[in-house]
Design goal:
This protein has 584 residues and is α/β, with parallel strands linked by helices. The protein contains 20 helices and 13 strands. The protein is 52% helix and 9% strand. The chain has a 4-stranded antiparallel β-sheet with strand order 1-2-4-3. The chain has a 4-stranded parallel β-sheet with strand order 6-5-10-11, with helices on both faces. A 3-stranded antiparallel β-sheet has the order 7-8-9. The protein binds arginine. It catalyses: tRNA(Arg) + L-arginine + ATP = L-arginyl-tRNA(Arg) + AMP + diphosphate.
Length: 584
């Protein structure tokens, strides 16, 4: 399928051509076209161009208008105000472009011309620890970005850089050796049991560790055994990892998110490469020895008293940490996975870490002009009261409890609305609505901003929520079912009323919106688009009888608008990782 050129792009091209013929020296002039309430589009670019050319803007605008080809796509164009252009497009052009979009499986969303390989680092919880709302954000945003990038033709590879290494494992493993049987084999537990076992072991081992200096010493020796690859120690370490994975998978499943085992490549996977990373950095002079440690300094990164804050590649005791694993991961992702883009979806509070890691990798040549690295640092999840999200007792909120509560609240909403559903159907939809609500609330805010986790607001039927979008979708499906024999058919010869044109012009913008949102890593732009789509659909539905339209052609054409709206909602929501149930 050839890509569908949007009306905005067509009009833009016509205007640009006219501008260039009116002012031949301004090549590459931008008419600055946007949707407008006054006409279909307004172009404001002439003002700046006139200023540059020292011409009168209204006169220039009038001259441009004379040069614009009209009659097919553009029905009418006039000068307004100091030199704006108001453009009205032909009804026929709207319906014809929409028909072309409808004929395309991709709804006219363009594919990237030169797709690359993006390695996306997201959904990275820590072994033997409960997942929290921060991990939720990474998973939700990362999953949406991945769908969006894939859809525009980019090849994505996921990397779940789980925290599966570190000194705390000495304590955990030593405890398990001294208290065998405390962790049931992973195959015998579900996610909740796995986590509660891990929690118990964590707390118990912590208590012994804090109280008993001999144990502390044994735990320290256990770290050394782990690092030197002692077989028994590694086996027990693996048990913690496997037990945690049972838990992770249960949460990801609840989140309705596909996570592939081969993409769970945690910190430990880079262990073998870390000494080499350190050696290379030292040889190149990128890292230097300072008080025994191997570190990298930066001119612009300073802490208290203007002291430079270094990135620690290797500690004085020879141990490697978070930075070494991330640097080694970069070598692997660029060198072995052939990444052209490295995308990290990690809390904004780690942005200094990534700034230093990226700069180090650049100095070492592991990042160069062929590879870009970007951290999508996301903001904090706040409680409904706007304060950091905690339970009433001041503890961090368990992700699972939160998701369960969202589903439960959604069940109330679904039950109230749909009297004729069985209890099983209610539960199934409640899961789709509740999880959708959580994802949408997250994704409809710009990732860099904090957002409030407010369940009341999230599952509300009114306002900018996924439930509102899901209802719009289900309502359309119900109309399509009721239409019986009547099918959606585009009739370009028909005149359109204002609500149809507004809906149609918005549908036409889907391709550009998705393409740009993917390029900018901005899922919230897709969310905003969909919300507006549902709102315009509601306005259309209020004003334009569909099944009771005046003529058969009009009915078919309106069914066509309904159908394309539904498909667009479905596709858009799928990009955000949210389901659209056929009935609600
Ligand atoms: N596990 C880390 C945490 O919970 C996030 C890992 C982010 N990814 C990375 N490559 N450092 O904070």
């Amino acid at each position: 399928m050839a890509p569908v050129t949007s009306l905005t792009d067509l009009v833009n091209q016509r205007l640009t051509d006219a501008l260039v013929s009116a002012l031949p020296e301004t090549d590459g002039a931008d008419p600055l076209l946007r949707r407008s309430d006054r006409a279909d589009f307004q172009a404001n670019g002439i003002l700046a161009l006139a200023k540059k050319a020292k011409a009168n803007p209204r006169e220039l605008a009038t001259k441009v208008v004379g040069d614009i080809v009209t009659g097919d796509v553009i029905k009418d164009v006039e000068v307004s105000g100091p030199g704006f252009l108001n453009v009205t497009v032909a009804d026929r052009a709207i319906t014809e472009t929409l028909a072309a979009r409808a004929a395309d499986d991709r709804l006219g969303v363009p594919l990237k011309e030169n797709p690359g390989v993006t390695v996306i680092d997201y959904a990275q919880p820590n072994v033997a620890k409960e997942m929290h709302v921060g991990h939720l954000r990474s998973a939700v945003i990362g999953d949406a970005l991945r769908h969006m990038l894939d859809f525009t033709g980019e090849r994505t590879i996921g990397r779940h850089h789980i925290g599966d290494w570190g000194t705390q494992f000495g304590m955990l493993i030593q405890y398990l050796i001294e208290n065998p049987g405390e962790l049931a084999p992973p195959s015998q537990v579900d996610g909740t049991e796995a986590m509660s076992n891990l929690n118990r072991v964590y707390k118990a081992s912590r208590a012994v560790f804090d109280a008993d200096d001999d144990f502390k010493e044994r735990a320290r020796k256990r770290v050394v055994a782990l690092q030197s690859g002692d077989e028994e120690t590694l086996k027990l370490w693996q048990q913690f990892v496997d037990e945690s994975k049972v838990y992770f998978y249960s949460v990801f499943e609840k989140l309705d998110m596909e996570i592939r085992d081969e993409e769970i490549v945690g910190e430990s996977a880079y262990n073998d490469g870390m000494p080499e990373t350190a050696r290379l950095l030292e040889e190149m002079g990128v890292a230097v020895r300072s008080e025994g440690a191997l570190v990298v300094f930066f001119d612009d990164i300073r802490g208290k008293d203007d002291q430079p804050v270094p990135l620690i590649v290797q500690k004085a005791d020879g141990g490697f940490g978070y930075a070494a694993s991330d640097l080694t991961a970069i070598r692997n992702r660029v060198g072995e996975l052939d990444a052209t883009t490295l995308l990290y979806v990690v809390d904004v509070r780690q942005s200094l870490h990534f700034k230093m890691v990226f700069e180090t990798a650049r100095r070492a040549g592991w990042l160069n002009e062929n590879v870009t690295a970007h951290n999508m640092g996301y903001g904090t999840v706040l409680g409904a009261d706007g304060k950091p999200f905690k339970t009433r007792e001041g503890e961090t909120v368990k992700l699972e409890d939160l998701l369960d509560e969202a589903v439960q609240r959604a069940a109330e909403v679904v039950r109230e609305k749909a009297q004729d559903l069985t209890e099983e159907e209610i539960q199934e939809r409640a899961a789709q609505v509740g999880i959708g609500a959580v994802k949408y609330a997250d994704l409809s805010t710009s990732p860099s901003r904090d957002y409030k986790f407010d369940l009341d607001q999230m599952v509300s039927l009114n306002g900018d929520t996924s439930v509102y979008l899901q209802y719009a979708y289900a309502r359309i499906q119900s109309i399509l079912r009721k239409a019986g024999e009547a099918k959606p058919v585009a009739h370009p010869e028909l005149e359109l009323v204002a609500a149809e044109r507004a809906l149609g012009l918005h549908l036409d913008a889907f391709g550009t919106t998705v393409f740009e949102a993917a390029a900018e890593y901005a899922p919230h732009k897709v969310a905003a688009y969909l919300y507006q789509l549902a709102s315009l659909y509601t306005a259309f539905y209020d004003k334009c009888p569909v099944l009771k339209a005046d003529t058969e052609e009009q009915k078919e054409n309106r069914l066509f608008l309904c159908d394309l709206t539904a498909r667009t909602l479905h596709q858009g929501m799928a990009l955000l990782g949210i389901r659209t149930p056929e009935r609600l």
